[in-house]
Amino acid sequence: MALSKSLQSGQVPLACQLCEESNEIKWKCLQCDFLLCTKCQTLHKKVKSTDQHTIIDIKDIACHQQQTKDKLDFSNIPCGIHSDQNCCLFCQSCEVVVCPLCITKIHEKHKMIELAKGYELTLKTVKTFNSDIDKKLVQNGEVLSEIGIFKSSEDSIKYELEKQKILSREKVLMDEVKKHTNKLMKELNQRRRSL
């Protein structure tokens, strides 16, 4: 009984967002952001105002989202200097995006390339920089490891020196104790003989 109640209050299948009747969703209009059944997809294509809309199979939504994510829009990059302007080129000499005013005032004789190419170059530079940093981190790790080994070796040497000092001191003290013991024994023996 409890299971049937939970199923009734569970997920409800989506209906076509155009006809709101069919539950067999197969398509998505990217511009309208509608999920459509096959019948409505055909009708949607016939409407004059939507004839340029892109309709994709719902199985391809994830792939399309990844492609859209990969395509970058360079048309609305605001200029950092001229707030009323959008950047239109990449100054390769200064490695910055520039608007028309920047080009005429500051970057007139510099080498300019398209924004997309500038983005690719910058991305490549960043990847190279990251790769160099990774290599340096590995090298630093190796150097730290060598320093650790050296420190450990140095600590071992210090340990052995201290150990030798202690053992030498022990020998000196034992020799002193032996001398003192011998002296006492000699005195004791002399006293005994004199009795």
TrEMBL record:
InterPro entries (UniProt xref): TRIM45/56/19-like (IPR047153), Znf_B-box (IPR000315)
PROSITE patterns per UniProt: ZF_BBOX
MF terms in GO: zinc ion binding
Keywords: Metal-binding, Zinc, Zinc-finger
Span of domain B box-type: 11-58, 74-115
A Pfam short name: zf-B_box
Name of this chain's protein: B box-type domain-containing protein
Species in which this protein is naturally found: Mytilus edulis (Blue mussel)
